[in-house]
Task: inverse folding
């Protein structure tokens, strides 16, 4: 027997190999820290949560710097020396600039993930999930896709319309589509969202109100119509929102709240919020709100080491406020201002006498929310939990006023005046008896300063999809973008910077043109599916 | 390390096999990724855990037939490392120790304070801000701070190893223990390793033999910020008017004024205050058993494994100096585990028939599995900054600030079966045939199996009758031919599928689609032809080999780069990852020459040389789906810049950009030149950098359309060298020995992106190359260096041949001199052998390259980004003194 042990051992090995090999499970390994597509979207709860991801990190590289670099610095509300974004202030930015690339990439990330949901849900969701739940999720995804295209078309003009990333894997060298077709595409998406998203009546602040509703889609649609100068449709949509009672104006319809309270983290997803990005406080880089990292004048405010005051409010913006406008305190910081909500542990924050972000003798207040302790103990460097607004109800009211004016020189139509003066009243300002386009544009600039809107208003001032911008160019050419000296009283080192007619659209990212030179060809009409 | 050129679009790293246990050199493969304080990732080399004194031999398998046994992961070559074994006889005790020091081999020449101050004055004018009062008269200023010398040092190192080996009665053993301690040349960095090894073999009886190899190591290192944004980068850019420390001993930094937003962190503070400690533990073992059934038939069974555990802590304390304040201390911790095991069976039959026909047949089976995972935590809100030498633990932070994460790989499993037969006739003709098949879990069912045949033939000419007349000159001549197919499946597990990644949002957890799936993904095939000759001449005084090879990779695996408008951004920001595909082809063609000569062989004096020469050329034969080119971009100075393109017919990752004609020095030149990038000729500062003026770079209008735009970009050269070489000379005279090893590379280009940051003349509060002090200005109208401009987004900094440099170099890699004490002398102190030596490594590099080191390699192991210098650790010159003693 002993002599045969070696043969037995050999035989055992052969048997073992034959027995263990070719086990299929050994080679079919799914990831253990993620979910496969086929295992999800199986319950109503899973379908509901499937849209959460469209409100957060997909927007990060837009929210982080590109949003304000483009809309506020180029628009003349903010100035900087910072070499990464300084070119936005003098209209010399090129397609090489990282923030151009970030804006582009962020929007197309939103579009890619929205498309994934739009295409996957109908295939993967079983019949046991109520169709209203599925349609609501599809509506949210289409709202987000429309919003991203709305930003893109305003930033770059013609861009490619993508409905499914998979269609372009083998053939990505495609043309851009015309501005008119992109607007039509946006309208279609928003109409779908309006028809399929859940209706809400908002009350208080809650996470549930963080998802967009049917009313959010109507509100966004009214803004898109306004850009297209379809005044009747814009008015109809705005009034539909106003009459629904879904949204309320903080400090007007909601007593005890102020304009400044809109930007307090505890008031995320309040009654005035139409659509907002949903940041997670203290979450890893990319998931939290990083705005105050760039805006806050120092790190005493943030408590997290950031607070770089990369921008300061231009002298032009500071001088644009009417005397007594309560919004100034909620938007910019001036020496001696007191903010009890910031740095509460030290009894509030008083703006130091030498405040001087980017030599403006002021700093940015809006979206600055204070230390983690000021925000329920949550937050980290470049990761605060306050929402970034995509749209507020105040916007709907001003759209209503402009839609009623409908391109006329002036109006005293009560529909326009009521909406318009409601916004002014909250700011502590007198009602106007009659309003002009200039009144509305001024009101919009002040109401939404540092919220990423003014640049786009300037871009539509001269009409829809126009090549020349004489009115806007005149406004920009007269903006004081200079600095204050250190003298008392300070002297203005004036800087007035002209913009060319083509300056209202930004160049495509160089890296994208290198991959697809057809982006620079003339846009083509889109074949709607 | 790359063997015979790169033939994949993924990692080009070879497979390391240490005592039969394969360890991939590719980043992430071992889960050995460490946290990096500046958001990147370090991929420590797997070899760092091995004690070099334990290595008996290191073989590089280059051609396909030789590598066929390791087929499934051998596409980039195989490096086989065998560690020392015991030998029968009296036990030998060896001590090997050395001590030495390292220094930076080179410092870059940067502006001193006088030069810096005049540059800042010009830049202040360009930015439209007031000149700084203290720089009113630059000539009155001194040299200022030398930041490179503030962070680099002479760093000491020592190594000790004790080993004992021997054997009796069928049992042999080799046991060793080692200690290694090295400081880095940058302050705040060091590396320590403790290691042991036990190799034991036992001949149990006449048909059964077993052996066990076990090695373990524990290493601990302090990692500093490296690369872009790291301390070296910051030391280069930091202004010379800033001191390292203030008078009161606190750190100094750029002022907290609005125009100083370009001011740089104090690298000494970064290096000494922020700690990044990586502790790694590794256990590697291999157990084998040989059964001899009959005289010619044996079965070998091996079970091996490689297991790693590491933890990594980064603590950023609170600080405040200059314009920088961090009130909140933060701790990040990561615990990694990785495991690999394999199981092998080899059945070998060897027999010689009729004394002339030798046959070796082998059947093999192999199974392996690897996986990795990590958990990560970060926490902030520490009330104390310093616990002496200790890093605080998580419980000392504020618990509400904690963020946790855990990741795991899908297991990577492989099963292989192979058969090999070697037939040799009369020791003269030999044929080898191998067929292997592999199944990999990295592919979807139905695409997991690959078949890889290979053949080799050799003919020893020198044994033929017709060779006899020249036999006295040519002792041994052998011709070899080889053909082989190798597979490559080196992609992350489950790359063929799509999954939903969880994402944190303010609305609760969300799920985002991770990747565009490609269920058809399968093995990359690589066909390699090899023709070679081995020869030895003049009574073995000259031995050498010459090999010509062609390696054709097809259907190679890579991640198709898709534009952002199709897939969005990076995955951590929610983008959908581009699909991995099998597509395209690359051909590498080249030859290797090895020549060993014994030039002088006399009783007292001996001189021998080894010359290695290698040349290859790679050419892309096709790209995915009819794509004309692949473009790779990098982010530099807040700009996203396309820098390399890979086109059909061209090499991998050639640089492209503009050609510089000169600098605009006269109105006449400005008027007559083609319009550049659509910018007007203007001196109006309100146009920002969208204008062309005196002192700007003039580019060449290559397509002759009288405008300078993207159509004027052209190839700026390939990063691939024409050839590489090594030349070793060993001399010995009586008890003295001397060896000199030279190594070099000829041809190829480097794109030095530091030229944009250190030579860009575009940022306030940042230092620059001293050579840039002579920039163009109305007062210096003949300079060929462009004038300062505000911000890096200016046309002077377009990627152009200004930033391209030759990568050629010749390096004195090693010179060592030793002395063996006479046996008679050391016998009295009970020593069998005693050698002392001094050795210098990396002593000098002859190169025209302006950066720290022309040997740059790949960025993130991406072969399309080769020789791109983004600011790296300079190579160090090492001098050591050592002893080898045997008792």
Result:
């Amino acid at each position: 027997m002993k002599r045969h042990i070696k043969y037995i051992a050999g035989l055992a090995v052969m048997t073992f190999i034959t027995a263990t090999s070719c086990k299929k499970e050994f080679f079919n390994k799914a990831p253990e820290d993620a979910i496969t597509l086929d295992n999800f979207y199986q319950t109503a709860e899973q379908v509901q949560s499937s849209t959460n991801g469209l409100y957060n990190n997909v927007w990060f590289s837009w929210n982080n710097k590109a949003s304000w670099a483009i809309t506020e610095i180029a628009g003349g509300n903010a100035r900087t020396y910072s070499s990464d974004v300084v070119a936005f202030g003098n209209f010399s930015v090129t397609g090489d600039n990282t923030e151009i690339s970030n804006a582009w990439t962020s929007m197309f990330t939103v579009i890619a993930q929205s498309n994934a949901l739009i295409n996957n849900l109908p295939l993967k969701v079983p019949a046991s999930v109520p169709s209203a739940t599925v349609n609501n999720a599809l509506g949210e995804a289409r709202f987000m896709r429309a919003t991203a295209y709305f930003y893109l078309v305003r930033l770059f003009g013609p861009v490619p319309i993508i409905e499914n990333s998979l269609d372009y894997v083998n053939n990505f060298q495609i043309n851009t589509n015309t501005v008119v077709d992109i607007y039509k595409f946006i309208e279609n998406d928003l109409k779908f969202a309006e028809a399929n998203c859940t209706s809400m009546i908002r009350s208080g602040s809650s996470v549930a109100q963080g998802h967009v509703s049917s009313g959010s889609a109507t509100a966004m649609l009214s803004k898109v119509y306004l850009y297209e100068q379809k005044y009747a449709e814009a008015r109809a949509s705005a009034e539909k929102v106003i009459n629904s009672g879904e949204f309320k104006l903080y400090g007007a319809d909601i007593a005890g709240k102020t304009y400044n309270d809109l930007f307090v983290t505890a008031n995320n997803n309040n009654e005035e919020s139409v659509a907002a990005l949903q940041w997670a406080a203290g979450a890893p880089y990319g998931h939290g709100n990083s705005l105050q990292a760039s805006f806050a004048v120092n790190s005493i405010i943030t408590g997290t080491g950031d607070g770089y005051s990369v921008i300061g409010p231009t002298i032009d913006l500071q001088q644009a406020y009417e005397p007594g406008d309560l919004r100034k305190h909620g938007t910019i910081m001036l020496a001696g201002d007191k903010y009890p909500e910031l740095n509460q542990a030290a009894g509030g924050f008083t703006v130091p006498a030498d405040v001087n972000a980017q030599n403006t003798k002021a700093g940015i207040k809006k979206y600055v929310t204070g230390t983690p302790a000021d925000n329920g103990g949550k937050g980290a460097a470049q990761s605060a939990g306050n929402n970034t607004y995509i749209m507020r109800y105040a916007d709907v009211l001003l759209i209503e006023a402009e839609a009623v004016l409908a391109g006329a020189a002036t109006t005293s139509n009560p529909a326009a005046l009521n909406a318009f003066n409601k916004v002014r009243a909250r700011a502590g300002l007198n009602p106007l008896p009659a309003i002009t386009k200039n009144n509305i544009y001024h009101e919009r600039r002040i109401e939404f300063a540092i919220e990423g809107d003014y640049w786009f208003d300037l871009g539509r001032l001269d009409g829809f999809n126009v090549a020349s911008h004489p009115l806007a160019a005149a406004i920009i050419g007269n903006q004081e973008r200079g600095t204050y000296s250190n003298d008392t009283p300070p002297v203005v080192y004036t800087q007035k910077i002209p913009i060319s007619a083509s300056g209202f659209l930004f160049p495509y990212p160089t890296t994208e043109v290198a991959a697809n030179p057809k982006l620079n060809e003339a846009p083509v009409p889109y074949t709607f599916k | 390390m790359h063997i015979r050129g790169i033939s994949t679009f993924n990692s080009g790293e070879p497979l390391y096999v240490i005592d039969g246990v394969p360890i991939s050199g590719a980043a992430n493969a071992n889960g050995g990724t460490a946290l990096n304080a500046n958001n990147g990732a370090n991929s420590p080399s797997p070899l760092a855990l091995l004690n070099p004194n334990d290595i008996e031999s290191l073989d590089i398998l280059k051609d396909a037939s030789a590598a066929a046994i390791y087929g499934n992961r051998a596409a980039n070559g195989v490096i086989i490392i065998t560690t020392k074994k015991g030998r029968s006889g009296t036990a030998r005790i060896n001590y090997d120790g050395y001590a030495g020091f390292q220094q930076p081999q080179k410092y870059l020449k940067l502006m001193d304070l006088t030069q810096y101050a005049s540059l800042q004055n010009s830049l202040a004018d360009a930015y439209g801000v007031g000149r700084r009062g203290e720089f009113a008269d630059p000539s009155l200023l001194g040299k200022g701070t030398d930041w490179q010398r503030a962070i680099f040092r002479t760093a000491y190192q020592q190594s000790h190893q004790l080993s004992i080996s021997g054997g009796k009665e069928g049992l042999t053993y080799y046991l060793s223990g080692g200690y290694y301690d090295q400081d880095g040349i940058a302050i705040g960095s060091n590396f320590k390793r403790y290691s042991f090894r036990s190799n034991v073999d036992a001949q149990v009886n006449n048909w059964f033999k077993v052996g066990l190899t076990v090695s373990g190591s524990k290493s601990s290192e302090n990692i500093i910020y490296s690369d872009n944004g790291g301390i070296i980068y910051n030391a280069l850019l930091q202004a010379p008017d800033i001191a390292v420390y203030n008078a009161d001993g606190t750190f100094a930094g750029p002022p907290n004024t609005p125009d100083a937003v370009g001011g740089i962190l104090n690298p000494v503070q970064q290096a000494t205050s922020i700690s990044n400690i990586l502790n790694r533990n590794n256990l590697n073992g291999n157990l084998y058993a040989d059964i001899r059934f009959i005289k010619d038939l044996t079965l070998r069974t091996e079970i091996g494994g490689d297991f790693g555990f590491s933890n990594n802590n980064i603590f950023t304390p609170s600080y405040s100096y200059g314009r920088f304040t961090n009130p909140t201390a933060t701790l990040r911790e990561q615990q990694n585990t990785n495991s690999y095991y394999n199981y092998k069976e080899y059945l070998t039959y060897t027999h010689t028939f009729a004394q002339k026909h030798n046959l070796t047949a082998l059947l093999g089976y192999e199974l392996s599995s690897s996986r990795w995972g990590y958990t990560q935590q970060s926490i902030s809100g520490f009330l104390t900054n310093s616990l002496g030498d200790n890093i605080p633990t998580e419980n000392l932070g504020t618990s509400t600030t904690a963020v946790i994460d855990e990741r795991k790989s899908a297991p990577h499993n492989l099963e292989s079966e192979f058969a090999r037969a070697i037939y040799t006739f009369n020791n003269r003709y030999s044929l080898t045939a191998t067929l292997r098949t592999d199944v990999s879990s990295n592919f979807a069912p139905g695409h997991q199996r690959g078949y890889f045949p290979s053949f080799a033939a050799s003919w020893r000419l020198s044994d033929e009758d017709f060779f006899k007349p020249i036999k006295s000159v040519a002792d041994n001549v052998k011709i070899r031919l080889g053909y082989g197919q190798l597979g490559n499946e080196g992609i992350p597990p489950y790359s063929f599928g799509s999954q939903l990644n969880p994402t944190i949002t303010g609305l609760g957890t969300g799920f985002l689609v991770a990747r565009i799936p490609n269920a058809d993904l399968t093995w990359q095939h690589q066909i390699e032809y090899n023709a070679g000759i081995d020869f030895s001449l003049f009574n073995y005084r000259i031995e050498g080999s010459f090999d010509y090879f062609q390696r054709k990779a097809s259907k190679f695996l890579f991640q198709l780069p898709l534009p952002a408008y199709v897939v969005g951004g990076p995955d951590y920001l929610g983008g959908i990852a581009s699909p991995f595909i099998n597509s395209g082809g690359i051909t590498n063609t080249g030859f290797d020459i090895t020549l060993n000569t014994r030039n002088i062989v006399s009783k007292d004096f001996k001189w021998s040389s080894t010359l290695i020469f290698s040349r290859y050329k790679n050419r892309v034969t096709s790209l995915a789906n009819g794509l004309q080119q692949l473009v790779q971009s990098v982010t530099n100075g807040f700009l996203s810049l396309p820098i390399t393109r890979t086109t059909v017919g061209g090499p991998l990752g050639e640089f492209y950009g503009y050609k510089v004609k000169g600098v605009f020095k006269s109105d006449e030149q400005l008027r007559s030149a083609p319009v550049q990038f659509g910018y007007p000729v203007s001196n109006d500062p309100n146009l920002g950098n969208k204008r062309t003026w005196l002192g700007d770079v003039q580019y060449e209008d290559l397509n002759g359309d009288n405008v300078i735009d993207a159509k004027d970009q052209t190839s700026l050269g390939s990063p691939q060298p024409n050839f590489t070489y090594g030349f070793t000379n060993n001399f010995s005279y009586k008890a003295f020995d001397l060896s000199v090893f030279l190594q070099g590379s000829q041809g190829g280009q480097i794109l030095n992106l530091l030229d944009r940051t250190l030579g860009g003349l575009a940022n306030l509060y940042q230092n620059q190359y001293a050579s840039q002090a002579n920039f163009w200005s109305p007062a210096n109208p003949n300079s060929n260096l462009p004038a300062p401009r505000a911000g890096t987004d200016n046309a002077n900094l377009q990627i152009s041949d200004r930033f391209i440099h030759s990568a050629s170099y010749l390096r004195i890699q090693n010179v060592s001199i030793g002395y063996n004490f006479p046996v008679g002398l050391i016998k009295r102190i009970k020593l069998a052998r005693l050698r002392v030596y001094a050795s210098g490594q990396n002593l000098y590099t002859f190169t025209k390259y302006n950066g720290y080191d022309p040997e740059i390699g790949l960025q993130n192991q991406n072969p399309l980004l080769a020789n791109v210098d983004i600011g790296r650790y300079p190579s160090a010159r090492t001098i050591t003194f050592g002893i080898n003693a045997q008792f």
Observations:
- The two ends of chain B are 37 Å apart (CA to CA).
- The mean pLDDT of chain B is 86.
- The CA atoms of residues 504 and 510 of chain B lie 6 Å apart.
- The first strand of chain B starts at residue 15 and ends at 18.
